[in-house]
Write a structure and sequence with these properties.
By secondary structure, the protein is of the alpha+beta class. The chain has one domain (3-108): Trna Endonuclease, Chain: A, domain 1. Helix content is 43%, strand content 18%. It is built from four helices and four strands. The chain has helices at residues 3-17, 35-43, 76-87, 98-108; strands at residues 25-27, 53-57, 61-67, 91-95. Strands 1-2-3-4 form a four-stranded mixed β-sheet. The radius of gyration is 14 Å and the shape is globular. It starts with a helix and ends with a helix.
Length: 109
Amino acid sequence: MTEQQLQAKCVEWFHNTYHNERGALHCNNNNSHNKIAGNVARTLGVYPGVSDLEILVDGGRTVFIELKVDGGKLSPQQVGWRSFVVSRGFGYFVIYTLEEFQTLIKELI
């Protein structure tokens, strides 16, 4: 399974399970397909290393979720992003499976 496939499964499960919370889960489109698209994305505020998903949780909290498969590791840019958001008091999680995602979301909501 690719990270894109895992993300699609996670988003589908979330949308089917939490109908009233759909807008709370947000995807960051930070994987450009070519240099032109990447340059356009940067002008629109896309930043390398930003987590794949964000979720707004009760109490005004925001949690960042990075998806990896097959033991994937965070890139240096992703490590920097994790340090940035954690230093500001936000939650950051690395998820490897749909089941891990489901458990996290059930704990957060």
